[in-house]
């Protein structure tokens, strides 16, 4: 199965960062090393950070990715001489040498992706993330076996976030993707529906929908049993919940 890899580098020759990647069937998209570039990149499986020459800059970028809510595996590509500089405070999931062969690169990328709780899609079109099951065929969602009483748009929003678990979306992006181009309401509509979803998920699971301050929302992948998240506990600042109360009467319950 092909892996969608985002390569953050300033090198004019992206293939030089990790030459073995060009021999593998994975999709590699070079991007400028900025968090904003990830928000515009669309869904992806892994982020590769070019740390061959600028260790300090790469470390800062990796830490920024972690604190900004980027919840896909981050892999740093460092030279052999730079290995000693990579410590746990980089908040990376894996490191690779530029000289690594295709077999090693492929194995490490697949392993690092499998360590994260990715969404599983069943043959019947259902989506499962931890104890949450979303059935597109019947437009139903169950949490720990309990059916969730969702409106059409609440279901669509939950489904879209779950399908792209870990990716951060701005309110405008969610409005466009879930409500459509011809919707004339404001982005506060998204905040209202997120509030309703969290209330229906309940106190124990409301954190599945995380808020990244000044950016938007993401679906937080449930940790695998016994797993420890990189960078410690995933503390997501919920700016929407601390904002002034919204007049929900202006929004249609659809």
From TrEMBL:
Q: Which GO terms describe its cellular component?
A: cytosol; protein-DNA complex
| GO BP field | regulation of DNA-templated transcription
Coiled-coil intervals: none
Q: Which Pfam families match?
A: GlnR_1st (PF21695), Trans_reg_C (PF00486)
Q: Which UniProt keywords apply?
A: Activator, DNA-binding, Phosphoprotein, Transcription, Transcription regulation, Two-component regulatory system
Q: GO molecular function terms here? A: phosphorelay response regulator activity; transcription cis-regulatory region binding
Residue ranges flagged as DNA-binding region: 124-221
Decide whether keyword Nuclease is in the record.
Answer: no
Where in the numbering of this chain does the OmpR/PhoB-type domain appear? 124-221
Q: Which Gene3D superfamilies match?
A: 3.40.50.2300, Winged helix-like DNA-binding domain superfamily/Winged helix DNA-binding domain
Q: Which PROSITE patterns match?
A: OMPR_PHOB
Please verify whether the record's keywords include Transcription.
Answer: yes
Which InterPro entries does this entry report, sorted A to Z? GlnR_N (IPR049170), OmpR/PhoB-type_DNA-bd (IPR001867), Sig_transdc_resp-reg_C-effctor (IPR016032), WalR-like (IPR039420), WH-like_DNA-bd_sf (IPR036388)
Name of this chain's protein: Response regulator transcription factor
The organism encoding this protein is: Umezawaea endophytica
């Amino acid at each position: 199965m092909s892996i969608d890899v985002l390569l953050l580098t300033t090198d004019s020759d992206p293939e030089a960062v990790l030459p073995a990647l060009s021999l593998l069937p994975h999709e590699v998209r070079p991007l400028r090393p900025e968090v904003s570039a990830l928000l515009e990149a669309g869904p992806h499986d892994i982020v590769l950070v070019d740390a061959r020459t600028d260790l300090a800059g790469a470390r800062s970028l990796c830490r920024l990715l972690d604190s900004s809510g980027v919840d896909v595996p981050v892999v740093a590509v460092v030279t052999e001489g730079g290995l000693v500089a990579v410590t746990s405070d980089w908040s990376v999931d894996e490191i690779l040498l530029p000289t690594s062969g295709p077999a090693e690169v492929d194995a490490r990328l697949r392993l690092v992706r499998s360590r994260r709780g990715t969404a599983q899609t069943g043959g019947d079109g259902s989506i499962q993330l931890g104890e949450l099951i979303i059935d597109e065929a019947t437009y139903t969602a169950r949490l720990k076996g309990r059916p969730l009483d969702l409106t059409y748009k609440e279901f669509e929003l939950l489904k879209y976030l779950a399908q792209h678990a870990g990716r951060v979306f701005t309110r405008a992006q969610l409005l466009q993707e879930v409500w459509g181009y011809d919707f004339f309401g404001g982005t506060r509509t998204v905040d209202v529906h997120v509030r309703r979803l969290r209330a229906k998920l309940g106190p124990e699971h409301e954190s599945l929908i995380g808020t990244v301050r000044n950016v938007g929302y993401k679906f937080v992948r449930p940790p695998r049993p016994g797993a420890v998240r990189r960078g410690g506990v995933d503390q997501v600042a919920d700016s929407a919940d601390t904002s002034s109360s919204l007049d929900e009467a202006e929004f249609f319950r659809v």
